[in-house]
UniProtKB/TrEMBL annotation:
<keyword id="KW-0762">Sugar transport</keyword>
<dbReference type="GO" id="GO:0016020">
    <property type="term" value="C:membrane"/>
</dbReference>
<comment type="similarity">
    <text>Belongs to the major facilitator superfamily. Sugar transporter (TC 2.A.1.1) family.</text>
</comment>
<feature type="domain" description="Major facilitator superfamily (MFS) profile">
    <location>
        <begin position="29"/>
        <end position="481"/>
    </location>
</feature>
<feature type="transmembrane region" description="Helical">
    <location>
        <begin position="90"/>
        <end position="107"/>
    </location>
</feature>
<feature type="transmembrane region" description="Helical">
    <location>
        <begin position="139"/>
        <end position="161"/>
    </location>
</feature>
<dbReference type="InterPro" id="IPR005829">
    <property type="entry name" value="Sugar_transporter_CS"/>
</dbReference>
<dbReference type="InterPro" id="IPR036259">
    <property type="entry name" value="MFS_trans_sf"/>
</dbReference>
<protein>
    <recommendedName>
        <fullName>Major facilitator superfamily (MFS) profile domain-containing protein</fullName>
    </recommendedName>
</protein>
<feature type="transmembrane region" description="Helical">
    <location>
        <begin position="173"/>
        <end position="196"/>
    </location>
</feature>
<feature type="transmembrane region" description="Helical">
    <location>
        <begin position="323"/>
        <end position="345"/>
    </location>
</feature>
<feature type="transmembrane region" description="Helical">
    <location>
        <begin position="202"/>
        <end position="225"/>
    </location>
</feature>
<dbReference type="InterPro" id="IPR020846">
    <property type="entry name" value="MFS_dom"/>
</dbReference>
<dbReference type="InterPro" id="IPR005828">
    <property type="entry name" value="MFS_sugar_transport-like"/>
</dbReference>
<dbReference type="InterPro" id="IPR045262">
    <property type="entry name" value="STP/PLT_plant"/>
</dbReference>
<keyword id="KW-1133">Transmembrane helix</keyword>
<keyword id="KW-0769">Symport</keyword>
């Protein structure tokens, strides 16, 4: 991969990059850890499909079902507009938001592994309750437990991957997390398609209860995975960390990287309150990215497409069965495009993928808005839809999904997890997950109402944000390809805007060769 050339670290001082290989040990470790994304992906995929299953709606959301049956010929935009139904989908994200705040402390004090273990166990409990649900309150409680699990997993897995991977391959290995999210979505879509056909109408129980499988994978995985050297040093296991680093990198000469990790850890120990520390001026670029990247990721409109792909396709005029099949198609596109990202992220860089994906999504949103506007108009009554029309809409939605899946999808998790210094890493990652969940919740909660009121303009609403986020990336996001994680602060120091917030003397690591070995951070 081309991302691994020699980098002049610290403003072109010609320092050699850390030695290390992509060992089978680290590859297998990262694949197992990345499975943490399965639980999030499975859930995103399953909830949209289950809410189009007639037996499920009849049992738990009878009013929605009655309205859907009564509205066969009228306004297609508003047939699923129910706050209880959206609360079922989005309660998970509220719970994930709360647990990601607790997960920060667990991840920092007890290690990344334990956080993953908690995530798996909580998700398993939620899946069990949902599979046996008899009433709406059981569904909501189950969803909240699933959410607690997602909060822990999403907080710890991207950090774990960024710390384990050699910096030359960090992008590709970290995107394994996003890949398993997309695989989770695809598996969920395929299962929904087949479970919806089960006679007797209890297929939705299998869909919801099936979440126990990815939960078990991450639970067992977290028990067998090694801890990251960064985390071991942070908890005082210095010699074990050196041995672990040698094993991970596959070389004996790890002194330089080890020294930087220890210096980063020493600096982080001087920080009593990482949350208040985040507000310091020198962390302004990190905090900005931790908030804006997940905010923009949700406002691409992707979760709207993925959550409600079956609902959306049903609304466009596909039948229940066909709409689930269309969701499977978008799921396959999602996985394929994420593989493109794994190939290209360390070759072409993060900025290129962000900007290319932005242009692609923008064009598709404009086309989809025009197509839906032309047929459904403002009344939401399309009459008979020709087959070619539905195919055009699905085609452009697929191109849109591909654009997201090799840009904002994986990079929205990768970039924040690789830019934070150790002393604020857990806290900043929690901010990242929390913002992601707040806006996932908000978008999920208001999407069906917005579809009802904005109609086809909803796609233009998201297109506007795609323009804003692409401008933001162009001007404010530096390239992080091929830079060791503990050396990341050089990118802020050389940036036209962020350099005014980041002074060299502020950094004990990531700038050690320039601060003459002074390991004590200033103004902490």
């Amino acid at each position: 991969m081309a991302g691994g050339g020699v980098i002049g670290v610290g403003g072109g001082d010609g320092r050699k990059p850390y030695p290390g290989n992509l060992t089978p040990y680290v590859t297998i470790t990262c694949i197992v850890a990345a499975m943490g994304g399965l639980i999030f992906g499975y859930d995103i995929g399953i909830s949209g499909g289950v809410t189009t299953m007639t037996p499920f709606l009849q049992k738990f959301f009878r009013k929605v079902w009655e309205k859907k049956e009564a509205d066969k010929s009228t306004n297609q935009y508003c047939q699923y507009d129910s706050q209880t139904l959206t609360m079922f989908t989005s309660s998970l994200y509220l719970a994930a938001l709360l647990s990601s705040l607790v997960a920060s402390t667990v991840t920092r004090r007890l290690g990344r592994k334990l956080s993953m273990l908690f995530g798996g166990l909580l998700f398993f409990a939620g899946a069990l309750i949902n599979g046996f649900a008899k009433a709406v309150w059981m569904l909501i409680v189950g969803r909240m437990l699933l959410g607690f699990g997602v909060g822990f997993a999403n907080q710890s897995v991207p950090l774990y991957l960024s710390e384990m991977a050699p910096y030359k391959y960090r992008g590709a290995l970290n995107i394994g997390f996003q890949l398993s999210i997309t695989v989770g979505i695809l598996i969920a879509n395929v299962l929904n398609y087949f479970f919806a056909k089960i006679k007797g109408g209890w297929g939705w129980r299998l869909s919801l209860g099936g979440a126990m499988v990815p939960a078990l994978i991450i639970t067992v995985g977290s028990l067998v995975l090694p801890d990251t050297p960064n985390s071991m040093i942070e908890r005082g296991q210095t010699e074990e960390a050196r041995a672990k680093l040698k094993k991970i990198r596959g070389v004996d000469d790890v002194d330089e990287e080890f020294k930087d990790l220890v210096a980063a850890s020493d600096a982080s120990k001087l920080v009593d309150h990482p949350w208040t520390n985040l507000l310091q001026r020198k962390y302004r670029p990190h905090l900005t990215m931790a908030i804006l990247i997940p905010f923009f990721q949700q406002l691409t409109g992707i979760n709207v497409i993925m959550f409600y792909a079956p609902v959306l396709f049903n609304t466009i005029g596909f039948g229940d069965d066909a709409s689930l099949m269309s969701a499977v198609i978008t799921g396959i596109v999602n996985v394929g495009a994420t593989l493109v990202s794994i190939y290209g992220v360390d070759k072409w860089g993060r900025r290129f993928l962000f900007l290319e994906g932005g242009v692609q999504m923008l064009i598709c949103q404009a086309v989809v808005a025009a197509c839906i506007g032309a047929k459904f108009g403002v009344s939401g009554n399309p009459g008979d839809l020709p087959k070619w029309y539905a195919i055009v809409v699905v085609l452009f939605i697929c191109i849109y999904v591909a654009g997201f899946a090799w840009s904002w999808g994986p990079l929205g998790w990768l970039v924040p997890s690789e830019i934070f210094p150790l002393e604020i890493r857990s806290a900043a990652q929690s901010v990242n997950v929390s913002v992601n969940m707040i806006f996932t919740f908000a978008v999920a909660q208001v999407f069906l109402s917005m579809l009802c009121h904005l109609k086809f303009g909803l796609f233009l609403f998201f297109a506007f944000f795609v323009v804003v986020m692409s401008i933001f990336v162009y001007y404010f996001l530096p390239e992080t390809k091929g830079i060791p994680i503990e050396e990341m602060n050089q990118v802020w120091r050389s940036h036209w805007y962020w350099s005014r917030f980041v002074e060299e003397a502020d950094y004990p690591n990531g700038g050690m060769e320039m601060s003459k070995g002074n390991h004590g951070p200033k103004n902490v």
